[in-house]
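Notes from hallway chat w/ T.B., transcribed later so I don't forget. T.B. wanted the structure written out for a chain they're using in a teaching module, and asked if we could keep both sequence and structure tokens in one place. Agreed to drop them here.
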Amino acid sequence: MAAVTRGSFSVLRRLLSQQYRRRCFRLQNTSERTLRPFAFTCDRNLCVFSSRMLHTAVESRGPIVQFKLSDIGEGIMEVTVKEWYVKEGDKVSQFDSICEVQSDKASVTITSRYDGVIKKLYYDVDATALVGKPLVDIETESGSEVIQEEDVVETPAMAREEHTHQEIKGHKTQATPAVRRLAMENNIKLSEVVGTGKDGRILKEDILNFLAKQTGAILPPTPFQEIQTPGPGPTPAAATKPASTPAASRPPPTTPKPVFTGKDVTEPLKGFHKAMVKTMTAALKIPHFGYCDELDLSRLVVLRAELRSVAEGRGVKLSYMPFFIKAASLSLLHFPILNASVDEACQNITYKASHNIGLAMDTSQGLLVPNVKNVQLLSVFEIAQELNRLQVLGSTGQLGTADLSGGTFTLSNIGSIGGTYAKPVILPPEVAIGALGKIQVLPRFDGGGQVVPAHIMKVSWSADHRIIDGATMCRFSNLWREYLENPASMVLDLK
């Protein structure tokens, strides 16, 4: 018993000596403090101690850190809290998701910089959070390095090409065990994935985006992105179904019942609706020139039907939109002024080298316009892959800032809802936009004067009339129509 007691006192003495030396070392650099005698009193009835008991006795919690919302960029000063991934009392680690916020540009995920316990949430869901103000309080773990920095903003939907490809051979890749397990289950080498987290850390979203680009194994886009092609069937119901979706696999459409409250409701504009106010106000300063035409897409319908099964075999859903986008890019090579921008005073024009063609999407969050980057370098299949990714992210509200910014030309697919003609509004600083109507089977005369069914689509263009004249817009539309009415001609110019 005496030997055990002496051993316990020996452990305690060494522990206290280490604490005493640390205290003395800290006080040596502090002129305002004076060294005081260190006293220790031990109970004579002390029995057996273990090192584990001593460690537990001296362990303490770290300081409480105010976790602030960092500057998201592009002059954004406030965001709306859309969802909390934690609650008070939850334990978090570095790079764990804290919440999802939505600005007037995109939805982003806020991740933790500290290990610790959530002590306080400053905002409710749908509340407005201000940049530079606290989001949560985190009680950090004892001994962990606490750096008073702002939070980490991660955009999970950011395109892989937007990041600098870092050389990570010979360096240990940073990823959590869960991310490593996900990569192992999908036979993905972490050395081939570009991390978007802090210091190149690989996130779960990076693995999913990498998997989508390599295999195309992603969810099918939502119905409103697909241009509806009526079939020759006798029933009107069959004419309204998209040609690419089997009737048996699609649930019947449901119309939400209207809610009558009996009183007026006033709420502030926020998120994407607030962004639309700003964008459309600026667009009204632009004198719009409108031009409409129609296309006979009968040959394209046959071609797409032949290639659809090939694309689906590669895990990609092929709609008509990749053909429309590629034809627009080929036409922009001949009319670069339509892929340009002008400054606010309309004194300088910038011709854009990249064809970042946007696609207007109608989502539950409002109108979103992500764009496919560098279309001039992509094949039709690669465009379809990227559209599949953007459509899935748009339907789940996960489009990042990189996907929504940098557009140079836009196509709006109103035909997915059922429209025929439109008067599209230019998205500054772009100078042109097109609205695509639904594809209809209509009677037309062939070369022999016989009436034949034809797949007709209307298109409506709007251009900035300050720098684009009607003849230029007309010639561009004619070339774009020629590529789509005779899709074989696109082969000569494809790169």
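Follow-up for T.B.: Residues 1-9, 20-59, 147-171, 215-250 have pLDDT under 50 and may be disordered. Might be a good example for the class.
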